[in-house]
Design brief:
D-Maltodextrin-Binding Protein, domain 2; binds zinc ion; alpha/beta; six-stranded mixed β-sheet; five-stranded mixed β-sheet
């Protein structure tokens, strides 16, 4: 009887170790060495837009005050579930998705930008110019995204509206191949998938984000109110470390950290990193208000959260 019980416990232990029944997120400390700092658990997607927090995890691996535990997700809905249910302390996430969660009552704050610029509208080589977008099928990752806004901006620049094209939502990883097969005529999505489209030889950049929306906002670093309230000093050290990491991401450092976490070809990353920067990641009120105007104008949301309620700058 005793032996059977022990066996049951052992089987249970093996299943737990094998990760059965655990969440979708794959969690890992950056360098895995011993340290004494308090841990902040951050959800991310392996994209160039999340490089600042990946770089921070590297820089703080042995910090005595704060460390970053990275939890990788495969899609925005999975990452949102983890953030909204409090399974993580924060995330690098599309700001519109975070705004929607906030509007629905989830206690989170945007504490910094994910990056600056860094988006492109990729189209098939057959598309001649902006006016030629009429009647085309364009993919975006999610209705709640700056990619949706940028597509609307590109259309407005050419006297068109969203009703003049066919918009489809598609998983970012599927977009380059959908362009190659002709299922779609173009797409706008988090990097490096635009650069992947260019590398196939079938796609070209129609617009960069700065040509459509100066000082655009796309991803944000968010923290839960619960974490900020209970771990104020750690939250402060984490946000400071994040901004420092962003400032440290020069071309060479960005390439190194992207190669480690993104598993994409070096030339794809090199192309992608030319479109983005990570210095000075504060979210200004002017910048945020421009975003909320666009969110309302293009029908993403009627009632986005106000800067004072959603953006936290005082740490
Ligand atoms: Zn982004």
């Amino acid at each position: 009887m005793k032996k059977q019980l022990l066996l049951t416990i052992l089987i249970g232990a093996v299943l737990t170790l094998a990760g059965c029944g655990s969440s979708n997120g794959a969690s890992a400390k950056a360098a895995g060495s011993a340290n004494a700092g308090e841990t902040v658990k951050i959800a991310y997607l392996p994209i160039t837009h999340s490089l600042a927090v990946l770089e921070e995890a590297e820089e703080l691996a042995n910090n005595e005050k704060v460390n970053v535990e990275l939890v990788k997700y495969g899609s925005w809905p999975e990452l949102l579930d983890a953030l909204n249910s409090g399974n993580v302390d924060g995330a690098s996430v599309l700001i519109e998705l975070a705004m929607k969660s906030k509007a629905e009552g989830v206690g989170i704050k945007a504490v910094a930008l994910g990056h600056k610029d860094g988006n492109v509208l990729i189209v098939s080589n057959d598309v001649k110019d902006g006016a030629d977008l009429k009647g085309k099928t364009i993919a975006i990752p999610h209705r709640q995204s700056s990619h949706n806004i940028l597509v609307n901006d590109a259309l407005a620049k050419n006297g068109l509206t969203i009703d003049d094209i066919n918009v489809v939502e598609l998983a970012p990883t599927e977009m380059p191949s959908a362009l190659v097969t002709g299922t779609i005529d173009g797409y706008c999505v988090a990097e490096p998938f635009g650069a992947v489209g260019v590398s196939t030889g079938k796609g070209k950049v129609l617009y960069t984000s700065e040509e459509l929306w100066e000082d655009s906002v796309c991803c944000a670093l968010v923290l839960t109110d619960d974490f900020i309230d209970k771990h104020a000093d750690t939250a402060k050290a984490f946000v400071e470390g994040y901004k420092t990491a962003g400032n440290n991401l020069d071309a060479e450092t960005a390439q190194t950290v992207a190669e480690k976490y993104l598993k994409q070809k070096d030339d794809v990353l090199e192309t992608s990193l030319k479109w983005i920067s990570y210095d000075d990641l504060d979210i200004t009120e002017e910048q945020y208000n421009k975003l909320t105007e666009k969110v309302k104008e293009y029908g993403l949301s009627d009632n986005p959260p106000a800067y004072a309620d959603f953006v936290k700058t005082d740490f």
